[in-house]
Amino acid sequence: MNKINIITLGKLKASGYNSRPIKDELRINLNKSLQEGINPFEGIIGYDETVIPDLQTAILSRHDIILLGLRGQAKTKIARLMINLLDEFIPAVDGSELNDDPLIPLSVIAKEIISKDGDNTKIKWIHRSERYTEKLATPDVSVADLIGDVDPIKAAALKLPYSDERVIHFGLIPRSHRSIFVINELPDLQARIQVALFNILQESDIQIRGFKVRLPLDIQFVFTANPEDYTNRGSIVTPLKDRIDSQILTHYPKSISESKKITLQEANLTREQKEKILSNGLLHDLVEQIAFEARQSEYIDAKSGVSARLTISAYENLISTAERRKIINKEDSTALRISDIYGVIPSITGKIELVYEGEQEGPSKVAQILIGKAIRTNFAGYFPTPDSIKKSEKENPYLAIVNWFKNGNHLDLVSTLPNKEYEKTLHKVPCLSDVVKKYHPKETKENHVLLMELLLFGLSEYSLLSRNKIDDGIQFKDMLSSMFTMTDEDDIEEDESNFFKS
To answer: Do 132 and 101 have their domain in common?
Structure first.
């Protein structure tokens, strides 16, 4: 017999149903998942050997949990996935506002219903998706929001004293009885509100306007917090922290490959973008490298962190930059280019917290510096660096390219160049294609052209060429001639910084 077809208390008792606390429920279902090799935390990448084992241990220990880590480390996503460890359906007394267990009623209302109707008490079934409550902690959250308050109108209508449970308007936590309750950014909760959580965690009773109400609530608490919040906006009061059984530390992806998997999984691309914009591993590596460079940058506040949302938004903008060019040129499809990377700047500037030195440079300039460092890092994976060539005393493969620019030539890569014009423009530089063939003889035509562009960007990062932003794209010139002929003060400063890079 299907459980959800049981609609009365009598039939529920006859079915042999046994009540169990939510923490036991999570523990038993996790145990079963581990034995069967099922991953209830599907989509959480990079935590297989770190966070997930600690989380599983905490669940097996039936602990309340706090996930502690910088922004964009999947803390909330982990909490939301915990519902996969709940039973698919549980019974509750129909008409109760606290998800009362028919066999162990909690509220006065549920007890009265059962007392009146007995085995004919109506039963409703609650799906696991309805047993999750999430609250963002903000300074304006009140005790009434979380726990409840006395309803004077109800007290007057029912002619009951304020101490009677029936005149209480319950808050989010009591209404989450037999559920997972998540408080995000716990330090943002005012200290007096945190104190109100003490007894719920320890003694299972609540106080409302001085009236103590004994409610043995059955709740799995999950809290999230950012370590930086402890000093910037607030802190977790020590007695509350002491009552949270397990503290689990999260972290950013430890490798580019893990970061790429997260970005590809979370990026919100349309079907047309996936089909018409030819992506490339090189460009994707560049996007991820920007975040890695940002986390080490002297311009960015390391304590604030660099969220994984940066790379997700940046990748979406990268694809859209190429798509815009495709639409303008009325082309059926196009491929990503190195120069498209400048389209991700708006995704960077809004997601980094700058220190004093970064504020002096400005967010846009810092974003360009990060892009430059990412290009420099990735260049070394495709071509020998000019520094390594000097040390080995081998023949310089880039000499003919550099000499072409020294002879007064320049190259303008306009951002909206059609595909054929883009390829034709790059072939204007002699020996550019030959260098790519030398180190990557078996590359496809599309990748060959992309590597030609990478060569120009890489050589400019090593101060062999000048790279300047122009109104409609990027211009490459000889380094020294560019310094002497420029009139724009900001561009001169940019060239000087490039020239003196080590």
So the answer is: yes
